[in-house]
Amino acid sequence: MKKILITGGAGFIGSHVVRLFVNRHSDYHVFNLDKLTYAGNLANLTDIEQAPNYTFLKGDIVDAAFVDGLFAEHRFDDVIHLAAESHVDRSITDPLSFVYTNVVGTANLLNAARRTWQDDLPNHLFYHISTDEVYGSLHNPEEFFTEETPYDPQSPYSASKAGSDHLVRAYYNTYKMPVVITNCSNNYGPNQFPEKLIPLCIHNIAHNKPLPIYGKGENVRDWLYVVDHARAIDVVFHQGKPGETYNIGGFNEWRNIDLVRLLCRIMDRKLGRPEGESEKLITYVTDRAGHDLRYAIDAKKIMHELGWKPSLQFEEGLEKTVDWYLSNTEWLTNVTSGAYKHYYQGQYESR
Ligand code: NAD
Ligand code: TYD
């Protein structure tokens, strides 16, 4: 049985990737390495935690000696690297944590993989999960990010992700390590930490709290259902060409204000409120510093070369997401109260 290391598997996207690999690929033993920061939550994985091909490893990718020891002990065959600090607003107040985890952490994994795989490099794969935010901000409505778009990151988060992407490519070029990188647009769906726009609004609508819209709400994002992203990662892991980059997106651009209004309408219906009730919670607030205007992905390469495409329409995905949050109120309450950090107390200490 092959051994795959998935980092950041207790987080939002990582938990969906871990679940998919554990359930679909019995030829792999899945090792989930996660520090369990505020964003890591093992309650995301209760359905598969007893699976015979799954092991959780608690640890910090910034700790080089720890990462080296882990690779020496387990000799992972392949890596899918998702662990990161992922929230732009946090990167504005605490950029250094992003440099440590996203840049130094990625370098530590690359070094440990290179050392472990040096005698048979071509038999391994280091798959790095990145974001469309590395391409910067689009101002011309006709433009889309392609795999050839030059990097132009604008926030400390996207700059740290760009740094990690460059390192991964450097290991391909310099050491011939087989690598692949995907740059995906904004994900949404079950298990997303309620600091990001969609789960934050679902939570606030449910609790009749203000919906903070940065600036005028005219910034545009492309949204993809998280399970569709996990499917894309599976496809690229198995069929992607080493050295290549693939953009992943939902062909689904929304201005923030239009998205939040749609969410309000769905929530009014689900909560049995009169139409227009939740929209009253919309509150315009000070804009995010350096707020990127628009992200838009051209995902034709992965569609044409690897045959992946999104499976869900946006409204359908949003409905599923709202249903999940409304029927998992305990998850949301634990996350917003901090109780989830005590959930596994005694088993794993947490920050
Ligand atoms: P997340 O914040 O929900 O999860 C990140 C996970 O990484 C958490 O479980 C956390 O505990 C873990 N982690 C953080 N620092 C660590 C460290 N030093 N050592 C070990 N583990 C650590 O993030 P997410 O939204 O699931 O994003 C996952 C990846 O996908 C990230 O690399 C992110 O840049 C990328 N991405 C995210 C989106 C999005 O819309 N969320 C879009 C494109 C790409
Ligand atoms: P977010 O979910 O933080 O993702 P990202 O910044 O990586 O795109 O934000 C999505 C968009 O929503 C972004 O344009 C910022 C905006 N936003 C708000 O208007 N209000 C909020 O409370 C948040 C969290 C985001």
Describe it:
The chain is of the alpha/beta class and 351 residues long. The chain has a domain at 2-192 and 222-254 and 293-313: Rossmann fold, CATH 3.40.50.720. Helix content is 42%, strand content 17%. The chain is built from twelve helices and twelve strands. It has a seven-stranded parallel β-sheet with strand order 3-2-1-4-5-6-10, with helices on both faces. It has a three-stranded mixed β-sheet with strand order 7-9-11. It has a two-stranded parallel ribbon with strand order 8-12. The site of thymidine-5'-diphosphate has 12 residues, from helix 6 and strand 8.
Outline the secondary-structure elements.
Elements: E1 2-7, H1 12-24, E2 28-34, E3 54-58, H2 64-74, E4 78-81, H3 88-93, H4 95-117, E5 125-131, H5 156-175, E6 179-184, E7 186-188, H6 197-206, E8 211-214, E9 220-225, H7 226-239, E10 245-248, E11 253-255, H8 256-271, E12 282-285, H9 300-306, H10 314-327, H11 329-337, H12 340-343
Parallel strand pairs: 1-2, 1-4, 2-3, 4-5, 5-6, 6-10, 7-9, 8-12
Antiparallel strand pairs: 9-11
Helix pairs in contact: 1-7, 2-4, 4-5, 6-8, 8-10
